[in-house]
Amino acid sequence: MSISAARRRLTRHLRWPLVAATVLVFAPGRSASAGDPPPPRSGTEPPIWTNVPTRIDRDRETRERIEPPPGPPVEPRLVIRGDARVVDATTIAVDGRRLRLFGLVPVERGRICDVDGRFRWACGIHARAALGALTKDRTLRCRILAVDPDADTVVDCLSQDRSISERLVEGGWAELDTDGRATPALAAARARAERDGRGIWSKTGAPSEDR
User: Of 24, 54, 26, 59, which Cα lies nearest the Cα of 39?
Assistant: First the structure.
């Protein structure tokens, strides 16, 4: 065999491995790596995540609305501008709606306070007048705390940036809620009123002016 024939035969044997290697390296598309997801197989759903262009079948595409997480609860607000009517020592009415101040028990209008058996005075009337003094011609900013169709709406109201409930108790014109819903601030206000002899705790009779 001549040298030329031997070279042609050797070249023919080496050509096929080189062609196969060329097909593997330069095949159309991007070569797969260890971290790539496998391509979708025929008849299966496309992958959720892919790093190669993927055709989407719009007829089979489904979408689901994800609701945003709930935010903090918003307490209803109520602004009363000078049109509140006093019902009792802890309740006002606005547009026919009765609003009861949070954490309090009213002093009954007909209550008579007895000062050591020495004299008696109409503390119930004074308690009702105290609420009128705090609400008449005032702008009240209230939070609605409880709504019951069979009972008064429970509110916590501010007048001149102070809690009306706290001011009534501090003046001795209301008792604390017997169900234990009074706050520590109201309990402290009641203790001060009794200590200082204010309102229904007075030892000298009716005050000269409402506080």
Answer: 54
Only one residue has tokens 């009534």, namely: 168
- 17-31, 57-71, 85-99, 124-138: least confidently modelled range: 17-31
Chain-centre distance for alpha carbon 206: 44
Q: What are the distances in angstroms from CA 93 to CA 45, 84, 152?
A: 65, 6, 10
In angstroms, the CA 123 to CA 109 distance is: 8
Structural domain span for residue 111: 78-201
Residue 177 above 80 pLDDT?
A: yes
Integer Cα distance of 206 and 123 in angstroms: 7
Task: Flag whether 34 is in a domain.
Answer: no
Q: Which pair of tokens denotes residue 192?
A: 């001060």
The reported pLDDT for the residue numbered 148 is 81
Residue from 133, 144, 145, 154 nearest 84 by CA: 133
CA-to-CA separations, 156 to 14, 105, 112, 167, 169, in angstroms, rounded = 94, 14, 28, 12, 13
Q: Residue 196 domain-assigned?
A: yes
- Can you give the CATH number for the domain in which 184 is found? 2.40.50.90
Give the pair of three-digit tokens for residue 114. Answer: 């007895």
How far is Cα 176 from Cα 104, in angstroms, rounded to an integer? 5
Q: Is residue 149 included in any domain, yes or no?
A: yes
Number of domains in the chain: 1
Cα(86)–Cα(96) distance, integer angstroms? 12
Question: Residue 198, SS3?
Answer: coil
